[in-house]
Design goal:
This is DNA processing protein. One of its GO terms (cellular component) is cytosol. It holds the Pfam family RsmJ. One of its GO terms (molecular function) is 23S rRNA (adenine(2030)-N(6))-methyltransferase activity. This protein is α/β, with parallel strands linked by helices. Helix content is about 35%, strand content about 15%. The protein has one domain (about 5-140): Rossmann fold. The chain is built from 6 helices and 5 strands. Helix 1 packs parallel to helix 5 and helix 4 (about 80-85) packs across helix 5 (about 100-105). The two termini are about 10 Å apart.
């Protein structure tokens, strides 16, 4: 049985660091014209509601994305990451946190591709539904388990 659910931890300080680095790597890869494949082996649900039961129970996002949300004096290196978070919170209120697959989808170019896998039986359908909402060229597969 899988017990880890990222929805309890979405937007925490580790996510801010991880997704900032992810954004900078993608931006660096885009400096060349050659298309690339982004593979996310632990994609999770894709999007997380910060006012949801799981996020509210731990409140970890309060020490992560909420601490830097709408600050004016952030380092330039945070700009690609923050712009994606802002895209999913257009009204200025921090309600949603994009996971790594949504960050990748937002930053990838037309010629790049995105492949995702997810093992958790509750998160895989959420991820699939998230990407059905758009015409994004993405491949989503459940992660196989060994018996």
């Amino acid at each position: 049985m899988l017990s880890y659910r990222h929805s309890f931890h979405a937007g925490n300080h580790a996510d801010v660091l991880k997704h900032t680095v992810q954004s900078l790597i993608i931006e660096s890869l885009k400096e060349k014209e050659k298309p690339f494949l982004y593979l996310d082996t632990h994609a999770g649900a894709g999007r997380y509601q910060l006012s949801g039961e799981h996020a509210e129970r731990t409140g970890e996002y309060l020490e992560g994305i909420a601490r830097i949300w709408q600050q004016d004096d952030l380092p330039a290196e945070l700009e690609p990451y923050i712009s994606v978070v802002e895209h999913f919170n257009r009204n200025g209120q921090l309600r949603y946190y994009p996971g790594s697959p949504l960050i990748a989808r937002q930053l990838l170019r037309e010629q790049d591709s995105l492949q995702m896998t997810e093992l958790h039986p509750s998160d895989f359908p959420l991820l699939r539904a998230e990407f059905r909402k758009t015409a994004a060229r993405a491949s989503i597969k459940p992660m196989a388990t060994s018996s």
